[in-house]
């Protein structure tokens, strides 16, 4: 089980976009793609066979997973995540600051 999953709300804690928050689009082992964060301009060549127009497009680039924290809506800050097993046997994530369960 991973600390951060696709669809989670995260806040950036390091880098040029520090303080911005967004939704996780994808997670790999050590990188994360966050919606509307770490935007870059990419110059593309036109390709009429594939229907691609040329020009400059803006897209998100992956960033290190260590540069984000899970956003806690109760405290409106980033929070550390722990794991615990409930009495019914489910393993869930919880916020370390207030013991609130992330997964429902």
Characteristic terms for this protein:
six-stranded antiparallel β-sheet, SH3 type barrels, two-stranded antiparallel sheet, 10 strands, mainly beta, 104 residues
Main β sheet profile: 6 strands, antiparallel
Rough outline: elongated
Parts with pLDDT < 50 across at least 5 consecutive residues: none
Alpha-carbon Rg, integer: 17 Å
Terminus-to-terminus distance = 15 Å
Question: Which fold does the CATH topology of the domain at 9-78 refer to?
Answer: SH3 type barrels
Identify the CATH architecture of the domain at 9-78: Roll
Which range does the strand content fall in? over 45%
Q: What is the N-to-C order of secondary-structure elements (H for helix, E for strand)?
A: EEEEEEEEEE
* SS elements, strand count: 10
CATH class of the domain at 9-78: Mainly Beta
Helix amount: under 10%
Number of H/I helices: 0
* Mean pLDDT across all amino acids: 95
SSE-based structural type:
mainly beta
* Spatial sequence of strands, sheet with the most strands: 6-3-2-1-7-8
């Amino acid at each position: 089980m991973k600390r951060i999953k696709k669809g989670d709300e995260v806040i950036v804690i390091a880098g040029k976009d520090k303080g911005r928050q967004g939704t996780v689009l994808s997670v790999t082992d050590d990188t994360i793609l966050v919606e509307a964060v770490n935007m870059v301009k990419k110059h593309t060549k036109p390709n009429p066979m594939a229907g691609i127009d040329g020009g400059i497009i803006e897209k998100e680039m992956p960033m290190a997973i260590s540069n984000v924290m899970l956003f806690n809506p109760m405290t409106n800050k980033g929070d550390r995540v722990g794991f615990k097993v409930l009495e019914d046997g489910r393993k869930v994530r919880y916020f370390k600051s207030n013991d609130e369960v992330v997964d429902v």
